[in-house]
Write a structure and sequence with these properties.
This protein is of the alpha/beta class. Helices cover 54% and strands 8% of the residues. A five-stranded mixed β-sheet has the order 3-2-1-4-5, with helices on both faces. It comes from Streptomyces zinciresistens K42. Residues 204-284 form the HRDC domain. This is Ribonuclease D.
């Protein structure tokens, strides 16, 4: 594994001198460490061979990123790895996503192992996908497993390119890949505490405040200790404490998730978070839900706007039928959110030009606009007549 500046410089030179696309993968330590940083980066390119780089020892890989600028990067499920790669200075200008290619080509199973087996006929070694990649030194079997992730990625890319071309979908795939490569980094999620598992049980604003305080306290501790938040306190425990609103440390200790393994000092810090939430004024309490932008949830359409609900039902059926004809998942043909938005506020004129403009305004790619516009025009027009 490359873990010093001299070895990294050699790798940069080798990969700069290589030819053709470069296969790239990254391993994180989700469930073990705080955040989504990369703990191993794997690459393979013709003329350069394979390389495993330790981004803990070599945290700045911008030189490698620059050496591969303009080269097509081959990744599997690119959107999962690109954020952690960007953090260490690596971002592609061109890419080929083998997982997304598999979806567009209509493969029923698009995991890397399944794709390699069905397309290339090889079975990849399994067993280390969920290990703690922050471990040092990394065991030899883990390194071998990680290297295999990029061993056949370019071969898989070449085979999928031929299949997409055969199906007449290669240009569609290129548009999707370009959209991923050019997308700006995602904005931090607003009120991430609202995604606590089991939140549907929490109804009252005071209880929501307890969830928020416990979540934020847990997050600070997890960040300081560099461990996964779930290892500090479970989501189940947070929700149970919010429902119980314990008044004392003793009462908190009886809540599910705060059992005998929780020390007195830990119980006191969690109870302090509960007490802070209980001391808030009504004006300081969180709202029951986040402000909704765009259409309401589809389940509410029948009451709010029955005509729009009927439009959505017809449009969904039409888009689903089209996706089936094109042999691809419906969400890859067009996002459900885009369909909802167009059906909630359709253009004044239900002609092809107006509907196409509405789809494009919501971020649909040209190929999606071309395919979906006719069926949406028909669906919207049927409900308007």
């Amino acid at each position: 594994m490359i873990a010093d500046d001299a070895a990294l410089a050699e790798a940069v030179a080798a990969f700069r001198a290589g030819s053709g696309p470069v296969a790239v993968d990254a391993e994180r330590a989700s469930g073990y460490r705080y955040g989504q940083r990369a703990y191993l980066v794997q690459l393979r390119r013709a003329g350069a061979g394979s390389a495993l780089i330790d981004p803990v020892a070599c945290p700045d890989l911008s030189g490698l990123g620059e050496a591969l600028s303009g080269v097509e990067w081959v990744l599997h499920a690119a959107t999962q790895d690109l954020p952690c790669l960007r953090e260490i200075g690596m971002a592609p200008t061109r890419l080929f996503d083998t997982e997304l290619a598999g979806r567009l080509a209509g493969f029923p199973r698009v995991g890397l192992g399944a794709m390699v087996e069905s397309v290339l006929g090889f079975v990849l070694e399994k067993g280390h996908s969920a290990v703690d990649w922050s471990t040092r030194p990394l065991p030899e079997p883990w390194l071998r497993y990680a290297t295999l992730d990029v061993e056949l990625l370019v071969d898989l890319r070449d085979a999928l390119e031929k299949e997409l071309d055969r199906q007449g979908k290669l240009e569609w795939a290129h548009q999707e890949f370009d959209a991923i490569a050019s997308a700006p980094p995602a904005e931090p999620r607003k009120d991430p505490w609202r995604r606590t598992s089991g939140m549907h049980k929490v109804r009252r604003r005071r209880q929501l405040a307890v969830v928020r305080e416990l979540w934020q306290t847990r997050d600070r501790i997890a960040q300081r200790r560099d461990v996964s938040p779930g290892k500090v306190l479970s989501d189940t425990a947070i929700v149970e404490a919010a429902l119980a609103l314990p008044a004392t440390v003793q009462a908190l200790a009886a809540v599910n998730g705060f059992g005998h393994r929780t020390g007195r000092r830990q119980l006191e810090q969690w109870q302090a978070a509960v007490d802070r939430a209980k001391a808030l004024t009504d004006a300081q309490l969180p709202s029951p839900g986040q402000p909704v932008t765009g259409p309401p949830p589809p389940r509410a359409w029948a009451d709010k706007d029955p005509v729009a609900a009927a439009r959505l039902s017809t449009a969904r059926a039409a888009v689903s039928a089209l996706a089936e004809r094109l042999a691809m998942p419906q969400e890859n043909l067009i996002t459900p959110d885009t369909v909802r938005r167009v059906c909630w506020e359709p253009p004044k004129d239900l002609d092809a030009e107006s509907v196409a403009g509405a789809l494009a305004a919501h971020g649909a790619r040209p190929w999606q606009v071309e395919q979906v516009t006719p069926v949406l025009v028909a669906a919207l027009s049927a409900r308007a007549s």
